[in-house]
Amino acid sequence: MTLRLVVLGSAAGGGFPQWNCRCPVCALAWDGDTRVKPRTQSSIAVETGKGRWTLFNASPDLRSQILANRQIQPTGLRETPIGAVVLTNGDVDHVDGLITLRERSPLTVYATSQISAVLDANPIFGVLAKDVVAREVVELEKPFEIDDTRIEFFGVPGKVPLYLETENLKIGDTSGDTIGVTMEKDGARLVYIPGCAVVNDDVRARVEGADILLFDGTVFHDDEMEKAGVGQKTGRRMGHVPISGDGGSLDAFKGVKIGRKIYIHINNTNRILIDGSRERATVEAAGWEVSEDGLEVAADLAHTSRGSTAA
C-alpha cells in the first residue's frame, strides 16, 4: 500500500485570510484576487491503514476540512475512517479541533507527556469521553505503530504554546513541547514538521533521505509581521524559523537529500501565498512547493492531485 496523505489545512493559526486582517496579502483574498486561495488552519491526514486515516493535528477548522475531503467523511452509521489523532504541539490551532471529535466515536490521541498535560489541564477536553477516546503518551525516539504505519516522534527546537508563555520562556527547547513526526510504510518515509524554531544538525539528519517533507513555512521574512503592521513579534520569537535569510530554511536544507519538499503552516502575511510573487518564485526555484488545502501526495510521487478526491 502506498503511503499517501492529504493536506487538510495549509495555513498557520487564524487561517487565510485571517478573519480580522487586511494586511497586504489578506487584502488580496478579501478583494477576490485569483492569485491567492483561501486556506484553513494546518493539519494533514495520512492513510495509516487500508481505509483508515490518522489526523496529524486537529485544527479549529476540522469540521469544514472533513466536509471538503471525502477520504475522511463517515462511511456508515456512526462510522468514520478517522481512527487516531497525532499532536505535534499544544497550540490552539493544533488541538482545538479535538472538541469536534466528541460524538463518541472510538479513536486514540497520541502525544508527548508535555502535550498531553496541556489537554489534561483544560477541562473542556473532558468532552472526549475516556471510555471511547484513548490517550497514548509517547516518548521521543520510541517507535510505535498506527495501523500499518511505523511512527516516531522526535524533538525539534520550539517552545510552549502562546497561552502558557511566562517571563522564563525558552525558545529552542527540544524536550517534547514541539515535535516532528516520521512515518514509514512499505519502504516510503514521510516527515512532518509544521513548527520549528531552528533547523539544526539533528533536524537535517532526521529529514535526510525522506521521500516527502512537510515543513514549517510560517513566515518568509523573520520580521514580516512588523513590516506588515500587524504585530511586533518576529518569526523566531514565535518559534518559527523563517524561510529566507541567514539560517532560514531555504539555506539550511541545501544539500540535504529529500524527495519532495513542501511548505505548510503558512502565515497570512507570507507572500508565498501569492501565485506569481517573487517569494513564491524563490521557493519554487529552490525545489520547494507551497501546500494548499486539498493537496494529495503519494510517497511514490505517481499520484498527486490538487483538490479533494474520493478515497
Give me the oligomer status.
single chain
Instruction: Kindly report the name of the CATH homologous superfamily.
Output: Ribonuclease Z/Hydroxyacylglutathione hydrolase-like
Strand content: 15-25%
CATH topology: Metallo-beta-lactamase, Chain A
User: Roughly what is the average pLDDT, rounded to an integer?
Assistant: 94
Based on the coordinates given, report the CATH architecture: 4-Layer Sandwich
Shape: globular
**Largest beta sheet, briefly?**
8 strands, mixed
> What is the CATH domain class?
Alpha Beta
SSE pattern, N- to C-terminal: EHEEHEHEHEEEEEHEHHEHEEE
What is the C-alpha radius of gyration, as a whole number of Å? 18 Å
Tally the helices: what do you get? 8
Number of domains: 1
Q: Give the N-to-C terminal Cα separation.
A: 14 Å
Q: What does this 3D model show about the protein?
A:
- This protein is α/β, with parallel strands linked by helices and 311 residues long.
- It has a single domain, classed as Metallo-beta-lactamase, Chain A (4-Layer Sandwich).
- It has eight helices and 15 strands.
- The two termini are 14 Å apart.
- The model is unreliable at 301-311 (pLDDT under 50).
Quick overview of this protein structure:
By secondary structure, this protein is α/β, with parallel strands linked by helices.
Q: Layout of helices and strands, plus pairs?
A:
Layout: E1 4-9, H1 24-30, E2 43-49, E3 52-56, H2 62-68, E4 82-86, H3 92-95, E5 107-111, H4 113-121, E6 133-137, E7 144-146, E8 149-155, E9 179-185, E10 188-193, H5 201-207, E11 212-216, H6 224-227, H7 249-252, E12 260-264, H8 278-285, E13 288-290, E14 296-298, E15 304-305
Parallel strand pairs: 3-4, 4-5, 5-6, 10-11, 11-12, 12-13
Antiparallel strand pairs: 1-2, 1-14, 2-3, 7-8, 8-9, 9-10, 14-15
